[in-house]
Amino acid sequence: MGVGEFPWDIAISAVGLVVAVAAFLRQFVFGEHRQLGYRVQMNTPSSTLAALGGAGDPPDGLMLVRIENIRHTAIEDEHYPDNGGPALVFPEHTVVAAAVTERVTREGTSVEALSPALTGIAATNGDGSAIIRLPKERLGRGEHYKVLIALKGPKPDPADPNGTNVVGVSGSLVGGAELQPTNSGSRRDPVLVGLASFLALVVLAQLLFAVLQPDPPPRDCAAGDLTIVGSTAMAPMIKKAAQAYENTCTAAHFTFQFSSTENGLTKLAEAGTNASMVAIGDGSKGVNFPTLKETPVALSSFTLVAHKDVGVHDLSVQQIRDIYRGNVRNWNQVGGVDAPIVLVDRKADSGTRRVMEAQLLEENRKVFRYTSCAGIPAGAQQCEVDDTENVSTYVARMPGSIGYVETSAVAAGLVPITIDGANPTSGDIRARRYPFTAVENAYTNGTVAGDSLAAQFIEYLRRGKGKLIVEQFGDIACVELPQPDVCTP
């Protein structure tokens, strides 16, 4: 297994889980369940409160200490030892007086009951230091009380507001948990803070893996190389769909050889059944390619386009037939300007041309000797080009010209011609008001394996996300048609 294949996200999650469980066991099972914390909230000279030290003998300093339960479990009376319980120690001072000034609790002794107890237990330790042994007071989670202490001895150092050099601790609860100094404004347990930080890093790492690691390809992705041939009218749509497929299924690769429907069918037939090739064709294959399997993909529309100066925007089917049969040779005969009509045709092997002749002309039109539009002589009635793009180029260039392209290929500067008032819109096509349409088919040489790239890509166009691209180009997926028989081969 390579580094890129290692399931890092699972490994990181497992490490995070192990650390979280270990921290939980340390905190709540094997660790110290109960612990008192203390925090010096004031350490100041007592010049303004001289009366606390007795008449004529004021204390040298005042200290306010907060005593709090810093764990999650309540501290009860039985958790204080009879001897050597938690205490505050003042090595260089004498305790003059002590009083509880605040008690935050849900239940327990009142301030009035605590203060006399504290005053009574202020004493001198065996080594000469002053000591205040804390009372056996119940403290639930988050509960605290504050002790105001008057001291005799060295005056408070302004550089030591937290009394670090004044007060210490001794003794412990049952189980050995000593008084723990806490930071101002916080009761955070360093272990829990560390755990939270570690888990945050785990989540961040998982997020980075999720963002940076490419999604695995879907199950229906196929790998390999596929050559697509056939209709130039469908080339832009097929190329975009193939690119989208490659983006999702990264092991798939496409090459394109679009020339015409007939050339594509011929290449596919000659390539044999083992070739990784698909042909895209306008309309049916006919009877000349018996080994090719035809799969309908979408209903596509085509549009007649004219030079911008002809003065015509709509033609009836009969007028179109008259134009292509040579009965109408000037635009003024169909309501346009006085200009001769020039037909820009696709070559005879074009599927688009076959569709136009079948759908609009009843296979009956005037036949011309082949003339390339690149070298069309003056006065010529018709010329031919190789592909859809050149139809647009020459119609835009030659006054009086008319041609036909796939609807999505109508270029700016050309005049799209409606047919009997109908447009190549989804509504008119579905209602069968617009006649210039054809089924776009995908062809394989015989039946291909269902998990092959050829089969999977055709299905992607018909039912997968490729269907959305088909619709972006104005075509209607066969599976979306209200009359499926329209797409029946």
TrEMBL record:
Gene3D superfamilies referenced in this protein's UniProt entry, alphabetically: Periplasmic binding protein-like II
Pfam families found in the cross-reference section: PBP_like_2
Keyword Membrane: yes
Ranges where the PBP domain occurs: 218-461
Record keywords: Membrane, Signal, Transmembrane, Transmembrane helix
Record-annotated membrane-spanning stretches: 6-25, 191-212
Keyword hit for Nucleotide-binding: no
InterPro entries: PBP_domain (IPR024370), Phosphate_ABC_transporter (IPR050811)
Protein name per Swiss-Prot or TrEMBL: Phosphate-binding protein
Source species taxonomy: Bacteria, Bacillati, Actinomycetota, Actinomycetes, Mycobacteriales
